[in-house]
Amino acid sequence: MPEKYWWLILVLPLLSAASVALVLRPFRAVSMGVSLLSAWVSFAVALWGFWSQAGSPESVRWMSVGGLSFQFGLVTDGLAKVMLLVVTGVGALIHLFSTGYMSEDPGKSRFFGCLSLFMFSMSGVVLSDNLAMTFVFWELVGVSSYLLIGFWFEKPSASAAANKAFIVNRIGDFGFMIGILTVWSLLGSLNYTQLQSFANDGRVAAVPAGLLTVAVLGLFCGAVGKSAQVPLHVWLPDAMEGPTPVSALIHAATMVAAGIYFLCRVFFLVELSPVALSVIAGIGGLTAIFAALIATQQDDIKRVLAYSTLSQLGYMVLAVGLGSPAAGMFHLTTHAFFKALLFLGAGSLIHAAHHEQNIWKMGGLGKKMPVTFVTFAIGTLALCGCPFLSGFYSKDAILIVAYETNRTLFWVALGTALLTSFYMTRLFVVSFLGEPRGDGAAHAHESPWAMTLPLVVLALLSIVGGYGSAITGALGLQGLPHTHPMAAVGGSVAVFVLGSLAGFLVYRGAKEEKITFKILKSKFYVDEIYEVCVVRASDAIAAVVGWMDTWIIGGVMVRGVALCASVTGQVFRIMQAGNVQVYAFWFALGVAVMLYWMMGR
Amino acid sequence: MESFVSSLVFWVFATGLVAFSVLTVAGRSPVSSAMSLVATMIFVGGILITLQAYFLGMMQVMVYAGAVMVLFLFIIMLLNLDQESVRKKAWVKALSGVALCGGLFWILLGGLGLGQSRPLPPVPQGSDIRDLGRLLFTEYLLPFELTAVLLLVAIVGVILLCHQVRDRAAKKGGA
Amino acid sequence: MNTVATTLFLQKSQEPMQWWNLPEVWWIFVGILLLLLEMLRPRRNSASIAKASIFAFAVMLIASLGWPTGLETTFFGGAYQWDGLAIFFKRIFLIAGLATTWMMRKCEAQGIQGRDEFYILPWFAVAAMGFVSSVGDFVTGFVSIELLTVCSYIMVAFYRSDRFSLEAGAKYLVIGALSTAFLVFGITILFGTGGSLRFDQLANSLASGHQDPAVTMGVVLVLVGVGFKLAAAPFHWWAPDVYHGAPTPVSAFLAVASKAAAVVFLLRLLIGPFAPLWTQCQQVLLALAGASLLVGNLGALSQRDVKRVMGYSSVSHAGFILLGISAGSQPAMLSVCYYLLAYTLATLLVFGVICGMIDKTGGSLMRQFNGLAQSRPGVAWLMTIGMLSLAGIPPLSGFFGKWFIFASVWQEGMYVMVFLAGFTAVASLFYYLAIVRHMFFEKPADGRAISSGLSFGYQLLLVVLAVATVAVGLVPGAVQRAIYALIFNL
Known about the structure:
The complex is a heterotrimer. By secondary structure, chain A is mainly alpha-helical. Chain A has 27 helices and two strands.
């Protein structure tokens, strides 16, 4: 029964994480080996599953509540297989890269344990066949991401970023849960296959449109949080405080793509609500252009890439919102390759330049690190949409869809592409060309093979990923465009050339920033605005609580102590009296209100 | 006529009960508070007697007014508590307390209905000592026995909380 | 000796149950035995009594596995009911009793003056709660609740020389007396209108007279009394102060056992005398639930003391439990039991760590936990598991507790309540995570209060609690089925 092997993809990383956490932690090399092995075997199983057309294994009864029993089953359709290949493949490469990158770190065991935990939860998100399981794995992904962002918890900024990511995601998940509960109460099932059949036989269409929109938007909330769409995007740039391989794996290639994957998974529900579709498209377009604008003015190499990721995720959401999940998934796949490549390349740079992340202190690294230089160049070109590289095809697919369905969003997407070429060229020119501008950059040398090999593999994938008819074929989703209107294709090539040229000309030989837009540099002040809001809100709550403290809780500690000093002999009684009387008063008032309310009925 | 007399008696006792309860709380010196409490106990006993629960009424007066309260008075005198020092005039607090009590009373009145007569539940087989004893040892055996445990715990608690202070005092004296 | 063994372990055997082999009778017996032991013991050394008490709790817990399940019977003329619901809660009480006694031992080992009664009082309290879980009439219910309350008063004020402990005891006493007054007044009114104190008879007579406003009044007043024990808003005022001031093990006891006793009393009322008055009860419960969720979760946000946070957290969990109960369906009842189990394990774990780490009573400021992850990573992780379970992060048991309750409430169509509860659950994350942040991401301040090592036994206790917290979450279905089989006698 070969179907059973699918379970290996879940079981192996879990075993690895558990054994590292419980037993192997003191043995750093062994922990690393176990984790690496589990990742590669999972990848092998995923490859086998992809080619062998193995079906889904039998599901297992998991729990029942309220007469409704949840089966724990795996879904292994084309969509899941493609996503699984991306997750395990990129994951395996990044495990390999990390053996080099983290080789000196004392917390190596912990790192690989968390990485395995992440692989387990991410594969779970991909494979689970019902909303409840998805939600559980979704949260687990959040937890492992929390652990990994805060991996260097000695850095206060890292711990703050971990908390921020976790809490912002929970806000999205709150909506997600409302969405799940709404779906359940509307349709009585959480199983994707069943829901799909309900959608086919018109039962979903019979549901009031408003409620369906609420459900879909609720589910979308989860995706907004996890895929860092506006307005919940603030956590992703901060998440770059984690080790670079983590940024590559979680915050570029896989976890943030989970939102897109999930939207495609439930697309049969999404497409039935036109309102939700347009909201999704709008948010996607907004995120794309918004993040691209910010990316043009960042100095930290990882932050540039982070905002670029945001922007590309916006692209994918846009594609889903325009009714073409296939285009979104296509871009997701190619983006996973070249963005992981870029992040790992950045990691290689940072590693070589002694943890220098500011691009203005790099420069001239191209000569010293030839492999990184070439592969990074390929990644950059792919991301910019250079013709005949993977990014060109997937981005074109989205542009064509936009061109055919919504012209406004088409112009937004095209503008984003222009900005993308511009800021990527800026990043490339400033960090690799010119003269070294910092100590780290001056003494840099090429990274070891464990780090460059994944770069080369990913670079190859970034070149050929666009031709992968196997990938697009296996998706089995509708909506990949067949026509190629000249306006869209030509426009995309034109903005690539324009953007790159502009970037090259402006930043060639530059030693400092040439153009300054304060508002972009400070990221549209979103963080500041949020902070003001949160501070206001917590001030307000604090004021209310403070009022309660004074009048209801009665500051025993403060006032009581003061009284202690002044009133001798009677201290205890007075301190006590004030308080307990007040408590008793509120207690009795509660009784009175409750009685009055109940008797009034 | 008989009902008039019994309701008159009830109102007298009830008014006294409320009045002395207020005095208990409002009294300045601990001794007068305790004496007011004795009076309320006696009025409660009176009301029980008008309900023909003669034994309970007697016990109420004997146990509470007689034994428990005398103990209280002894303690107060032993501790030699003075008059409570002049309280800060907290008119807002006092007024809000009174208002709350009034409000609660008004709500309860609305629920129970003033002057409405309700059929009383049947008093279980009279209430002389023998019936009471039989009830305690049959239907209410479990709670009755539990009360014994409750008293045991109370005794343990009292000894515990007081004893510890003596321990410390002894230690201080030794050092 | 043979009889004792039979009684304790082999109750599944053919012999029918007798009043003298009811567990509570044995528990009280153990309590009295320990009191006698204390008197006869030659030297003043609490360790032996403590060990005896812990050992006895362990024995009783094991013996509880032999209790006859699937059997519904009554004793003392209906005042005592033996059924699955009672068994479930009695086991929770035993777990709580065992864990808190163990913590008390830990407290004393840290040089806090304790006395033998500290280890003996939990026996009477647990017995009282056992009676509450089997209660069949109002007099028994009232007396057992009072017995529990008196034990709690003494335990809260146990460190007489400590200002906070004594103050907490006094506060608990006064507010408790007030709530007792309301409770007994409510019972009186119900007796007056229903003509009986027995639950089954009251259910019949109240079914006919449920339009009477006096009945509503009685119900509300009784629920006020329950709300006090449950620490549900607006009757929660005591909770943060008392949790803060009481010796930590006693705070744990109040948070877990006392609350569970209130829950089972409420369930007994709702399936018994209040069944015909369900609509009124539901309104009251919903109001209490909403208020508790808001007050508990928002109140905890500004707290800087872990024990005060736990006080408010306890209020908010009372809200979740009440919310589940107010759904009223059979799955909801199961969810509440599951939730309570998860809450019990996680709360005991958290208080266990606090008790093990903080040297003195009274304050346990969050910053005293700074840097715990560096100095004692294991303990920090245990605490994190407890906190995350309370916050409801999957796959820990607390998550499924919330999930089940949300799902069953949602099924009853009370969407607004689910939104409210979900919102407050998100808010709760802030204060639970704050503690985690202090442990992992803050530098230890000088003059740190992190105490020295923990004994092997104590570590074992904490680890068992943590493993149980995780395990109950990993197999939620199996646990639910087990509870279902137990409670509904299948």
